[in-house]
Amino acid sequence: MSALNIKKGSTSHSAYDLRSALSEVEESHTLAVIVENEPGVLARVIGLFSGRGYNIDSLTVAEVDHTGHRSRITVVTRGTPAVIDQIEAQLSRMVPVYAVHDLTAEGPSVQRELALVKVQGRGEHRIEALRLAEIFRANVVDSTLESFVFEMTGTPDKIDAFAELMRPLGLAEIARTGVAALSRGI
């Protein structure tokens, strides 16, 4: 039998079965994970992702409740709906995890990222870099005769757009904090 033939009752899929392929579109999801603030918790959470081959697009972590010793880990990851559900379930089962929220699935959220962007250039390139920084509401936090360091906050898409416009003007380096996110409303 050829590899494309399907035996009766088999669970393998044909290359022509597009229905299953279309329902398995990867999506980006932002997860907020409240954890015990203790050594090794971040490594365990990240180990869950790496051990199962899940990618992390963005990761931020900080203590949010000093007296309760709790931290918030914000993870942006990609996967099919089934994979995202699996990630949530596996995170929820971990002992130091108090809560897992899929901000993408729960409704509108506010997402921001901080970036420092170093641009090197002279003459017209410097003038254009300053003009674009004003449009994007980026602040100059360091300046020399040959470079600027801009600070900006915004959505990841806004920071990507700013970096792309700075690339031909002399983008030298960029540092990003990762996404911080909260659900909107109550």
Automatic annotation (TrEMBL):
Q: Which UniProt keywords apply?
A: Amino-acid biosynthesis, Branched-chain amino acid biosynthesis, Transferase
List the catalysed reactions: 2 pyruvate + H(+) = (2S)-2-acetolactate + CO2
Quote the pathway field: Amino-acid biosynthesis; L-isoleucine biosynthesis; L-isoleucine from 2-oxobutanoate: step 1/4; Amino-acid biosynthesis; L-valine biosynthesis; L-valine from pyruvate: step 1/4
Tell me where in this chain the ACT domain is found: 30-105
| Pfam families attached to this UniProt entry | ACT_AHAS_ss, ALS_ss_C
Return the EC number. Answer: 2.2.1.6
Extract the PROSITE patterns matched here: ACT
Question: Care to name a GO molecular-function term for this sequence?
Answer: acetolactate synthase activity
Described purpose of this protein according to its UniProt entry:
Catalyzes the conversion of 2 pyruvate molecules into acetolactate in the first common step of the biosynthetic pathway of the branched-amino acids such as leucine, isoleucine, and valine.
Family, similarity comment: Belongs to the acetolactate synthase small subunit family.
Question: Could you give the subunit structure recorded for this chain?
Answer: Dimer of large and small chains.
Please name the NCBIfam families in this protein's record.
acolac_sm (TIGR00119), PRK11895.1 (NF008864)
Q: What is this protein called?
A: Acetolactate synthase small subunit
Gene that this sequence comes from: ilvN
